[in-house]
Automatic annotation (TrEMBL):
Pfam families: Cons_hypoth95 (PF03602)
Keyword Calcium in annotation: no
Organism: Candidatus Dojkabacteria bacterium
Gene3D superfamilies: Vaccinia Virus protein VP39
Protein name as catalogued: Methyltransferase
InterPro entries: DNA_methylase_N6_adenine_CS, RNA_MeTrfase_RsmD, SAM-dependent_MTases_sf
């Protein structure tokens, strides 16, 4: 993993805009500046990513710029956990990025997948990856903000058996955790066991990729409960099922 920052020349140019009166003032502004730059950038995976199992095993996945796709190690751990539950299930991949989770699911036997991402580049890369893995008939790609997608389908009967979320780092604001709590609660309503308690034996699972230090356990969820959390360096994967 590497951290992608602006060039040193550009950073120095921005810092020279601010005059300081003392070394103490300089140190304070320096720390504030670096914190702001760090929070505005997301870690970028520089290594290649592939499908780790199933029909499309070892297929190399193209990655959009400034995207943090699931690493092979993360995917192996996730799919070891959900095991055979993936077979014939419907998948919703939110903030899809490269479409890595959906592609892995389809390769391992999922029935169909819906991939949602607002980025134009991600939309192009996802479609290319799906075409190369020959999963076009089973995949629906939607170029949309996740919030708009949720609102649009609110009054429909749509549901997905397994939902994966990998929101951008900027949405994990520790001072406004209620925003992420609201999004997760809204997304969980699309799991089959929430509105159809007696109908489906598999009530649904929600998988969330988040910063390791994010206080996700302090969030209040209406329909889901945590099963486990898997840690991978700076990131964690939390697995939830319907209560």
């Amino acid at each position: 993993m590497s951290l992608k920052f602006d060039s040193s020349k550009k950073l120095r140019k921005e810092k020279t805009k601010h005059k300081v009166e003392s070394w103490e003032d300089f140190e304070q502004r320096e720390q504030a500046f670096l914190k702001e730059r760090f929070l505005s950038k997301e870690p970028t995976i520089s290594a290649s990513v592939r499908v780790t199992g199933g029909k499309a095993k070892n297929f190399k996945i193209d990655i959009p710029r400034n995207t943090r796709p699931l690493t092979d190690r993360m995917k192996v751990r996730i799919f070891d956990a959900i095991g055979k539950d993936i077979a014939n299930k419907t998948i919703l991949d939110l903030y899809a990025g490269a479409g890595s989770f959906a592609l892995e699911s389809l390769s391992r036997g999922a029935k169909e997948a819906t991939l949602v991402d607002a980025s134009k580049q991600a939309d192009l890369v996802i479609r290319k990856n799906i075409a190369h893995t020959v999963f076009l008939p089973q995949a629906e790609v939607i170029k949309s903000k996740v919030e708009d997608f949720i609102a649009k389908n609110k009054d429909t009967d749509r549901s997905w058996d397994i939902i994966f979320m990998d929101p951008p780092y900027k949405l994990y604001n520790t001072k406004r955790v209620f925003k992420m709590q609201e999004v997760i609660n809204q997304v969980s309503e699309y799991l089959p066991g929430v509105n159809n308690v007696k109908g489906n034996k598999f009530k649904g699972a929600l998988i969330i990729k988040h910063p390791r230090r994010y206080p996700i356990d302090t969030l209040q969820f209406e329909h889901i409960k945590k099963v486990d959390t898997y840690e991978f360096g700076l990131n964690s994967i939390s697995l939830y099922i319907v209560k």
